[in-house]
Amino acid sequence: MKPESAPPDEPVESLDRLLRLPDPLPPCTRDELLGLYRQMALIRRVEELAAKAYTQRKILGFCHLYIGQESVAVGAAASTSDDYWITAYRDHGHAMAKGVSARAMMAELFGKRTGASQGQGGSMHIFDKSVRFMGGYGIVGAHVPMANGIAWAARAREEERVCVCFFGDGAANQGAFFEALCLAELYRLPVVFICENNGYAMGTPLHRQSAVTDMSLRARGVGMTREQLAGWDVQRVRQRVAAARQHALSGQGPVLLEIVTYRYRGHSMSDPAKYRPAGELEQVRERNDPLTLTRRDLQKDHGLDDAAIEAVLASVEEEADDSWAFAESSAEPDPATLYDFVYAPQTTSLAADTDLSAARPQES
């Protein structure tokens, strides 16, 4: 006789819930696709200048570049522009895709007062509440549970918004990641988890860090809806993130998307990436470069000629150069503001200057 607490008989296969929603958005117009192309090109050029600034010691500390992965952030932004985002330390591309300006981005990297985080965050901690970019975080996987809190708050406030949470393939093996997925599914939170699988956790290839190389399968352990897709095509990313958002907002629970991509630079600026097999990077760039593929689509599907595209790239170059000049000419942060963001402003009934010892009961 089966105990009353035993689960009902259910085939294991039924626990694998694939995202079956069709593409919910109309295809990109000419101008929309050109805008996505320009945003990807701007992110790449700003990142290239950031690499140059790092070698000149204008940028200090860690610096993790997003070159090669631009189609993921830009495609996701095209369908979640009004939603909350949170991400890890490779956050420059996400911040710009979400609406942080090139000027604010570069100034933050330079540690200047005009930066997105007033020069106090730096490369790994870009933050801009005005565009609902809730920050980059430097501890692997530690931000994934925070996505649950953001989504819970959005639902409590009855907002029609999800929290989009980006992380790498290495973070998908971290304990907080599993805990966050478990609770998100349990409470049907409106979260879209996006694993940007760029093939390497620092210098360790995926097949050497995980027996499971389809990271979307992590969803099966908690019964979460999932999908794996190639991330080179910005239009494909746009559609599938939109489908995941629609699912999450419907009350059916969160979605785990694994978007396969590739980073062209090392893990950080201090990493020469000598662990790559010979010819791997060149092969990926030749076959799957997001900018090259989008340029081909613009030419094939919308009839743009080289002159029109080169004009866009010229404007990108001008904006990127302007961000450098702006950052270099901006003021340093006032040292007096060093502790401004350590604690939230005092909002309790006890004033900041209250003598707390006077409020304690006297010993008898």
Provide an overview of this structure:
The protein has 364 residues and is of the alpha/beta class. The protein has one domain: Thiamin diphosphate (ThDP)-binding fold, Pyr/PP domains (Rossmann fold, 3-Layer(aba) Sandwich). 40% of the residues lie in helices and 11% in strands. The protein has a seven-stranded parallel sheet, sandwiched between helices. α8 links the parallel β8 and β9. α1 runs antiparallel to α3, α1 crosses α11 and α4 packs across α11. The longest helix is centred in the first third of the chain and has 26 residues. It is globular, with a radius of gyration of 22 Å. The termini are far apart. The C terminus is likely disordered.
SS element count, helices: 12
CATH superfamily: Thiamin diphosphate (ThDP)-binding fold, Pyr/PP domains
Counted up, domains total 1
Largest sheet: 7 strands, parallel
Regarding CATH, which class? Alpha Beta
Shape: globular
